[in-house]
Design goal:
Layout (H helix, E strand, L loop, with lengths): L2 H4 L2 H6 L4 H8 L3 H8 L8 H10 L4 H10 L10 H10 L5 E4 L2 H12 L4 E6 L9 H9 L8 H21 L4 E6 H9 L6 H18 L3 E6 L5 E7 L6 E6 L14 E4 L2 H17 L1 E3 L2 H17 L1
Parallel strand pairs: 2-3, 3-4
Antiparallel strand pairs: 1-7, 2-5, 4-8, 5-6, 6-7
Helix pairs in contact: 5-6, 7-8, 8-10, 9-10, 12-14
Length: 306
């Protein structure tokens, strides 16, 4: 299918998007997108093709097909900045669906680049503090058959750590709520020989941030969340939220499965904010710095003994 047809109003509806939403997601002007639709621009720039592919939640091999159709080469290391820039230009408005794992980190970059406090309800520690070598090895051992995929994953996590450091340095708050049982499972589930080494480093990185930043806090909860979500409180603007379901057994799907949503719809934000407040009231197991730090230290000791 031609690029002009892919971004037609009819095709966008299949992705659950309007023309206005698509312009906000891609950061590409209506004028430029309409020129592609009308075949006035027959060979858009490489950056535009990649950004459009990401806006459509296309997988890497599908974006490569678009590039080849445009008589261009497949995605390479030089394109990583295009991916990061696509995230920086994205505007989270309305309700935006997410279908592809590549877009997960990009959407997080979009959300985490905004000023304001963050509340994260999750089943694992901050991905931003994962050792980069571990990120690369996990990507290499995933089912995504693309040589550039590990480099993209590393670049995304590196960028997210930069954003975390920037957020904390500006005295914004990041409060993380994690299921305690999921934390213990993370320590116990070691599929590869290298898992233990890098998990120890991940836990040590987390301890360092807890001790260094008073505005970075972790709370262990007794109950596992049905939804994982991130609330972003933005001064002087509409708050944003990203939410996804609980983890599937199959980490990567060969089908276009709905993964989650990002939205600035306040009724959705308010509902998830209420869920966060219920977690505070009913589900906290450890929230004091000493108790949380002790649990993480126990995890490090357990991994070292294995």
């Amino acid at each position: 299918m031609k690029l002009s047809e892919l971004i037609s109003e009819k095709e966008l509806k299949k992705h659950g998007l309007t023309k206005n939403q698509f312009a906000q997601i891609t950061g590409i002007s209506h004028t430029y997108l309409n020129a592609i639709r009308d075949d006035k621009i027959k060979r858009p720039g490489r950056d535009k093709i990649i950004t459009i592919g990401l806006g459509l939640n296309l997988k890497l091999d599908e974006i490569n097909s678009l590039l080849l159709t445009n008589k261009d080469i497949e995605i390479c290391e030089d394109d990583i900045e295009i991916f990061i820039e696509a995230a920086n230009k994205r505007t989270i408005a309305g309700t935006q669906p997410l279908y592809d794992l590549i877009n997960f980190d990009l959407l997080m970059i979009s959300l985490e680049s905004l000023d304001g406090d963050e509340i994260v309800v999750n089943n694992k520690l901050s991905r931003s503090l994962t050792p980069l070598d571990y990120v690369r090895l996990e990507a290499e051992n995933s089912e995504v058959d693309n040589t550039i995929y590990p480099q993209l994953c590393v670049a995304f996590v590196k960028k997210r750590k930069e954003l975390l450091d920037s957020l904390l340095s500006r005295n914004h708050k990041l409060e993380l709520f994690i299921c305690h049982n999921c934390f213990l499972e993370y320590i116990d589930s070691n599929q590869f020989d290298y898992d233990k080494k890098y998990k120890i480093e991940h836990l040590e990185n987390t301890l360092t941030y807890l001790e260094k930043h008073q505005n970075y806090t972790i709370n262990f909860t007794e109950q596992c969340p049905f939804l994982r979500f991130e609330l972003k409180y933005i001064p002087g603007a509409k708050n944003k939220v990203f939410f996804i379901g609980t983890s599937a057994h199959d980490k990567i799907s060969k089908h276009d499965r709905l993964y989650g949503f990002a939205t600035d719809t306040q009724s959705v934000f308010n509902s998830l904010e209420l869920e966060y407040k219920k977690i505070i009231t009913h589900s906290i197991k450890y929230s004091e710095l000493k108790d949380v730090s002790d649990e993480i230290k126990k995890g490090i000791i357990k991994l070292k003994k294995k």
